[in-house]
Amino acid sequence: MYSNRLVFKTSNNDEVFYLNDTILINFGVNRNGISTSKLNAGTNDLYKSVFNQHLSQEKIDYLENHDVRDYLINECESLNIDHNRSTGLITFADMKNTSIVSKKFKNIEVTTLATAGVRTNASRAGDPSSYWEDNGKFHFGTINIILLTNVFLDESTLTEALMTVTESKTVALNNLRIPSQYSNGYATGTGTDGVAIFSNADSHNKLTNAGKHSKLGELIGKAVIEAIPKAIKKQVWITNSSQSNVLVRLNRYSLDINEFYDNLDCDKFEFIRQLRIDARKQDNVAITTSILNLIDEVDNNLVEKQDAYELALKLKEKSNSYPIRALLEYWINHFIH
Fold first, then answer.
1. CATH of segment(s) 3-238
2. CA spacing 20 to 30 A to 325: which of 41, 109, 219, 303?
3. In terms of pTM, does the model score above 0.85?
């Protein structure tokens, strides 16, 4: 049925199919696992398949008045898979932007499939909430991760693997300096992420630890940390290069700068033109990053405000760009002084 759309195959003969708005994985072995989906959530034995699906506007409209689990069951029927032995994740991200990464050490192998969009829904644990729930309210997943391993993990180890995947996701976002959309901090995920992890129930190689000290934990971490930036690049074109920009870094600390521009004592057009040029220079990015780190330190009560203020002003003067110095001084006076 899916022979013309096979895009990947694991060493356990799991077949990954691209079906326009869905990534479907039919397992080549019996799999137990853990899922955050509304369909067969928690830990379960003998999964046969998993899918990740992009939500079209038509499907979003349908979900407004329907139960999520019922929707997922209907999708299983459309995909001709057993809903009692399947689980599924849903997202705004396009399935063509799925990233697939495999890592191996001796007889241990993990494969991660990820989709990620972080422009509008990135958030940090502890941020102000974007909604509160009363009798159920549906929100769409943004960073979805499916992880497969060729070894057997029991329920406790699957749970530990879930923790390792979550921490690894945060590392990946931090490496890209993805800002929260709800605070001045860096994002630790999005408000609606989904994860599904599966082990090989047929394997005689049972591993009992998926934490950061274990080789399995290391492979999980490396696979997730590599897969998420690739997915982000495909979905929203955020890269290491695009993040290396003064204006991008300053944007983490939201501030209405209309007053700043209104009080400029020079030509506004020329100021902005030069600012855009100077914003990409590495010395200016480094200076800006250092000043923003001081703001973070003050916010977390790790550095005295006056000390941070004086040092930030000295750092600002290290820039050879008048637009950068002027903008940094505005930020310093607003967030530290």
1. 3.60.70
2. 303
3. yes
Computed on alpha carbons and rounded to an integer, the radius of gyration of the chain in Å comes to 23
Helix, coil or strand: residue 7: strand
Amino acid at 235: Q
Pairing of strands 144-149, 194-200: parallel
How many C-beta atoms surround the C-beta of residue 251 within 10 A? 11
Neighbour tally for 65: CB within 10 Å: 6
The residue assigned the tokens 């994860």 is 195
The answer to whether 144 touches 112, Cβ cutoff 8 Å, is: no
Is the confidence at residue 312, as pLDDT, over 60? Answer: yes
More confident residue, 131 or 63: 63
Residue ranges per domain, the chain?
Answer: 3-238, 244-335
**Strand bridging mode 144-149 / 122-123:** unpaired
pLDDT for 141 beyond 50: no
CA nearest neighbour of 260 among 331, 314, 308? 331
